[in-house]
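Holo prediction — S-adenosylmethionine.
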Amino acid sequence: MSNKNQVSIKKMSANSDQIYATQQPATPFKFDQKVAAVFPDMIKRSVPGYKDIIHIIQKLAERYIQKNSNAYDLGCSLGAASLAMSYGNQNSGVNIIGVDNSEAMIERCASNIQGFKHQTPIKLIQSDIQQVEILNASMVVLNYTLQFIPQSMRESVLRNIYQGMRPKGVLILSEKVIFDDPTTNHLMIDLHHQFKRENGYSDLEISQKRNALETVLVPESMSSHINRLKEIGFSHVCSLQQQLNFVSFIAIK
Ligand SMILES: C[S@@+](CC[C@H](N)C(=O)[O-])C[C@H]1O[C@@H](n2cnc3c(N)ncnc32)[C@H](O)[C@@H]1O
């Protein structure tokens, strides 16, 4: 696969993330204009394995997107997973649908995807993923989005996705996770902070971002995710990739 047929996170990361570099009042994290402007740099420097899961999404799109079906990217941000599915899709009659409730993200996503020569059309919808109708889906991606949905609503979001999926359709779910064992949980958090320091974030940036995310991003354990996906009815569920406390799951209908 040549580089021109892959999503280049580097090409997207024009602006560097300085949002928490100076002391500021504690306010909950929001996907606003400021975040959208630096998002590719932020996610690359904050989420271990991000580039790898985008590549795996492309490989799974090659295998799982079915003829005359839809592929959804829920919480699409600037469209990295939408583009990966567009590059990966091998079939005709396919629509990729990117959904995000942040106006700033949807606006930037629209101009971002224009900069890539992708073959399968990508339609963008500004909406809460709790309201969106999933229809005729052979692939659905929730790449680090479910963690921002209130915990009590996550099951209904997943059930809605399951109901809109075709048999043999695939869901990719990526999440920050917690571990039941306090020692390993603490170790993973510490290693993640080290990962961020090695990517140029200061201790001030790390602690201010952590505080801002505290009430907004609520992680669950790997077993909670796997058990819920199985209870909803997915036939085959397992983890695809783990780097520290960031895990991607695959669930096949
Ligand atoms: C961590 S980012 C996702 C990254 C993206 N999936 C990727 O692979 O680059 C989370 C995204 O979910 C969006 N989001 C959060 N809650 C949402 C909701 N209830 N409905 C729709 N989008 C939501 C945010 O605006 C943000 O763009």
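READOUT: The chain has nine helices and eight strands.
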